[in-house]
Design a protein that fits this description.
2 domains; 5-stranded mixed β-sheet; 5 helices; alpha+beta; 29% helix; 191 residues; 34% strand; 12 strands
């Protein structure tokens, strides 16, 4: 009986420090919804367009769009008011023949960008000096757009991921878009 209690005690003495270390280093375990109240404690993880990359199986080409068109048009919401951002946008299309192929394409797209952006401390909402910052987000039966933002030392950067099916019947074409804003001073965007 004493051996069992000793083994359980040792197990918990090892498990508790490991869990505390993981929770301390993985902010999503602590905050759950990946929001921050200040944005000022985030490390400098801004992304350059050359380092973003694309998931395998997709052929992205650079889209011609300025801040008044494309995904950059309403990329950042400051206290729920949209603001245009300049940046780089890429587009790819993929033909899918079933719900299963569509789900696999979406999953591949999401996993790639979540590992490049979300897991590197980017947020889907945060507060800066009492103001709410959010990237553009929308969802429908044929498409969706979601994004993340990074804020540090007065600068902000937004990354948006977009997918939309041409129709609900198969085969159909799915358009994927990725927008990465330039790192910009927030006080120049919101005047």
């Amino acid at each position: 009986m004493n051996k069992i209690l000793l083994i359980i005690l040792i197990f918990f003495l090892i498990l508790i420090p490991v869990l505390l270390f993981v929770a301390k280093n993985d902010k999503t375990l602590i905050s759950g919804n990946n929001t921050s109240s200040t944005g000022s404690t985030q490390s400098a993880n801004f992304i350059s367009p050359n380092s973003l990359g694309f998931p395998s199986g997709f052929s992205f080409v650079k889209a011609d769009s300025g801040p008044s068109e494309g995904l950059g048009k309403n990329a950042l919401y400051y206290d729920y008011n949209p603001h245009a951002l300049s940046g780089t946008e890429w587009v790819a299309t993929k033909t899918v023949n079933s719900d299963t192929e569509y789900a696999a394409a979406i999953k591949s797209f999401d996993i790639y960008y979540n590992s490049k952006i979300y897991k590197n401390g980017w947020m889907n909402e945060l507060k800066v000096n009492g103001h709410t910052l959010q990237p553009l987000a929308a969802d429908s039966t044929l498409g969706r757009i979601y994004g993340y933002l990074k804020y540090e030392n007065g600068n902000v950067q937004v990354a948006l991921m977009y997918s939309q099916k041409a129709s609900d019947s198969y085969p159909t074409t799915v358009q994927f878009r990725v927008f990465l804003s330039s790192t910009q001073p927030l006080n120049k965007i919101v005047k």
